[in-house]
């Protein structure tokens, strides 16, 4: 017995040296509590969103409401070139369809929207125009959609919703 102790002392081994497991146990219990309190009943990928009743995953029927449909189509893809780390497009052309009218330039599109904003009023509140539903078709870039939303809001409309399902 004495020899072992003398050998350990000479080797610099401390008998009380050991691993303190208290922090590991604390972390384990915190993780258990964290996962017990999580709500795993919601499906992954299902996010709550404020969508109109006639759009989305809702299965209940909604009253038809008067709205203005604006479609954005890609007419000409254009060409791309590198500018630094970005891809820049030139020569792109889009067209807009509002109800049954087609517009091929922004000026005519804006004038058409302003006319529709004066004519189409919300039946619930005649001081406001009807809501607009924006349909972006395949090939239309995000930036073109945001500029179209800006044009719609600038023309006097105040509610814009988005439709989808046009990608192939």
Can you offer a commentary on this structure?
This protein is elongated. Helices cover 32% and strands 22% of the residues. It is α/β, with parallel strands linked by helices. The protein contains 4 helices and 7 strands, in the order H-H-E-E-E-E-E-H-E-H-E. The strands form 2 sheets. The protein has a 5-stranded mixed β-sheet, with helices on one face. Strands 2-3 form a two-stranded antiparallel sheet. It has a domain of 96 residues.
* CA-CA gap between termini: 82 Å
Question: How many DSSP E strands?
Answer: 7
Strand order of the largest sheet: 5-4-1-6-7
Main sheet makeup: 5 strands, mixed
List the secondary-structure elements in sequence, H or E.
HHEEEEEHEHE
Topology:
Elements (H helix, E strand, L loop, with lengths): L1 H10 L10 H16 L30 E9 L2 E5 L2 E5 L2 E6 L2 E3 L2 H14 L12 E5 L5 H13 L5 E4 L5
Parallel strand pairs: 1-6, 6-7
Antiparallel strand pairs: 1-4, 2-3, 4-5
């Amino acid at each position: 017995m004495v020899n072992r102790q003398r050998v350990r002392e000479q080797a610099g081994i401390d008998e009380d040296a050991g691993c303190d497991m208290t922090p590991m146990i604390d972390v384990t219990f915190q993780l258990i509590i964290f996962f017990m309190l999580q709500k795993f009943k919601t499906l992954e990928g299902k996010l709550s969103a404020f969508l109109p009743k006639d759009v989305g995953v809702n299965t209940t029927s909604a009253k038809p409401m008067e709205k203005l449909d604006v479609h954005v189509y890609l007419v000409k893809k254009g060409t791309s070139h590198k500018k630094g780390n970005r891809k820049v497009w030139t020569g792109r052309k889009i067209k807009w369809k509002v109800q049954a009218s087609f517009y091929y330039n922004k000026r005519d599109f804006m004038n058409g929207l302003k006319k529709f904003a004066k004519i189409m009023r919300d039946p619930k509140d005649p001081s406001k125009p009807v809501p607009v539903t924006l349909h972006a078709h395949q090939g239309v870039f995000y930036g073109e959609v945001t500029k179209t939303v800006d044009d719609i809001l600038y023309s006097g409309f105040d509610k814009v919703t988005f439709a989808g399902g046009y990608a192939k």
